Amino acid sequence: MRLRATAGIVAATGVLFSAPTAALAADGSEPGFSKVAGACAELTDQGAGWAVLRNDCPWKIKGSVVLSSGDTPACAQIAPQGTNIVTWEGDEAAEYAIDCPAPAAARPAR
């Protein structure tokens, strides 16, 4: 009997802790996190032909967005914990922010 009670508590605890997290991730409302794991750029606002990106990292990055067509506008430099605007022709919506790859010379050695 004791084993069953313990298993039930563990299962119930898992549901309590995982359900809210899943709900946040499913509706995309989890603030402060990009959709791409490990990414610094976050889409914070947008309109027809523009988007505001925030750099969540303590170093300078270049970021852009992926548009509803799959196209990616030119990258914009973003200061540490700063913001910048990315622009494009047309009225497509920005789907999400991306970090632009750094040139090989600027990448940290492994």
Automatic annotation (TrEMBL):
<feature type="signal peptide">
    <location>
        <begin position="1"/>
        <end position="25"/>
    </location>
</feature>
<protein>
    <recommendedName>
        <fullName>Alpha-amylase</fullName>
    </recommendedName>
</protein>
<keyword id="KW-0732">Signal</keyword>
